[in-house]
Structure formats: structure tokens, C-alpha cells
Design brief:
single chain, mainly alpha, 6 helices
Amino acid sequence: MDRVVVRVVWLVISVVAVGYAVSSAGDPVSGVSLGCAKIGEYGADTAVRCDDSIAQVFGAWRLVLLGALLSGPPLLAAFSRRRSVWWLAVVALVVVGLTGLAMWTTIWILLLVALPLAGVGSVAVMVDTAVRVSRPERS
């Protein structure tokens, strides 16, 4: 696999992450609120209904932060030619995904999508590594 292909994969992962953050803005808050899931109410705030959108309830800044956390590491990896940076992006996405798992009762559960993104990135880096090892250097 050519390094350009791996960099394109990282760029696609970054675009998918931004798309996910943007598309999550219109989702109902019931998908990220434990209160809505258990009792049908969003905590003590009676002005918020469980079918309100995430953007309405949490505001745009949290969705921007979500998009930055998900797309930042792959975007940096896309512009790097170093395999070590690619692996650091995988580690960063795993940490972001595990953070979403730890905060599963809030909006940050949406960070869980970082885990499959890290999987795709790691497969791309492993394939590139395997191809580089199996291919002799050209003079």
C-alpha cells in the first residue's frame, strides 16, 4: 500500500468523523440522556423535552468539540508521512473512544464512534507496514 493511500484513508476517516458530528446535531437528546432513557424526562430541567435535538439542548460548541476530538487525530495523520504519527492517531482515537465509554450517560457517549475509526486506521497502517516489509527496497 502506498503511503498516499494511507494518508487518503486518514483523510476519509477525518471527513467521516466531521460528518458524524454534524449528523448527530439533529438527533434527539433521548439518545444521549440516561434520564430520557429511564424515566422519559431530561433531569430537573422541565423546559427540555426528550425529543428536542442535541444541538438545541447542548448547543453548537459541544458538537464542534465532538467533531474536533473525532477528526483532529486523523487529520494530523493525513498530513503526516510518518508511521509513528499514524500510530499516535490510532492511540488518540482509542483514548477518545474510551473517554466516551467512561462518560456513557452524557452527550460524550457519541465519542464511542472513535473506536471503529481507530480500527480502520490501524488496519490501514498495518497493511502499509506489511507491504513495506514484504517489498524489497528499490535501488
